[in-house]
What does this fold into?
Amino acid sequence: MCGPSTTNDVAHDLPIKGARHLSWGMKNRLSKLIRPDGRCFYLPIDHGYFLGPTRCLERPAETIEPLLPWADALFVTRGVLRATVPPAITVPIILRVSGGTSITGHDLADETLVASVDEILRVNASAVGVSIFVGSEYEKQTLENLADMVDLCEPYDIPVMAVTAVGKELEKRTAKYLALSCRIAAELGAKVVKTYYAAEDFDRVTDGCPVPVVMAGGPKCTTQREVLDFVHDGLHKGAIGVNLGRNVWQDPYPVAMMRSLHGLVHEDLTPDQASALYSELSQTGTAGA
It folds into this structure.
């Protein structure tokens, strides 16, 4: 005879915006990417798809090995995944599925889809990432890429993360532009949106997006404290987490940086506390632990 139900028997919803109406499979995959605290810390190493062998990412396996224990997901291309990431990895995979251009080409925005849903399933990805370039010559093309990938992935309950890219046009990183890009991405079916941080009115970006917003790092910041400050501010203005690459693995002490950022995201450290942790780990020689 079955006993009385308890609160532990109740399947709690994901603690993120828009989760109530998602299917079980979609929630299951997102629950691997977003912690029970509603936060996330993604480690991107997909830069080579347009930059080539980026500094400190020449040998991806060596770069990520000490960082993975602190990552909630790895954002990676299929080629680097197969060539350098151990199949026994327990960190979820977000597969980059847009590309087709390089830093030497005419326009980074001229992207297409570079992976099929069969490929996504073969590598057991928990989600996929597609760039959109709102306001560029290729706006319509990249938005169609996003919509097409959503159509391909929905039958399999695979979440699509839209990446609001701007190429070399860094002046576009205003709250007004980012709010527009994030809202369009959500309207087209993205379940998560990765976007840049705006120093002014970033809450305008998160408030206007009906799905979770994750902050990108962009070009490497000048100082370690600059990174900690913008991450802390963005989290308190509605972002659920970060997707930081160069500001981590190009740091002189990447594990110390990874752990400090993890403290901001998941332990509610202040920038002062996170900076102190960074200093302790880097100065005592335990940064690689």
